[in-house]
Write a structure and sequence with these properties.
binds magnesium ion; 2 domains; mainly alpha; 4 helices
Amino acid sequence: MHEKNNVELYRRTLEKWGEQAQYDQAIEECAELTTALLHYRRDKTDASTVIDEMADVILMLGQLRWMFGAEEVERALERKRAKLEGLLAQGDDALQGGAE
Ligand SMILES: [Mg+2]
């Protein structure tokens, strides 16, 4: 994602509609993606609909990341990646006959 290009967009969006509206919009877009995925799983919609809803959520997550602080979000992402790596390592041990 081209975040540097989006920062100006995020700033203008926040200025025009305000903080509360951004939270509400993020909630709404997440719900729309949830619905699209449920419909996709049941063959009630196509991949392009899911992709469109993903794009909405990605933009809103960019907006929120900018609002809450990109560095703090990056630190949280690093913690989550490390946790996932740990879980994957446990999985590998289990598949290979369990822990030592
Ligand atoms: Mg949407």
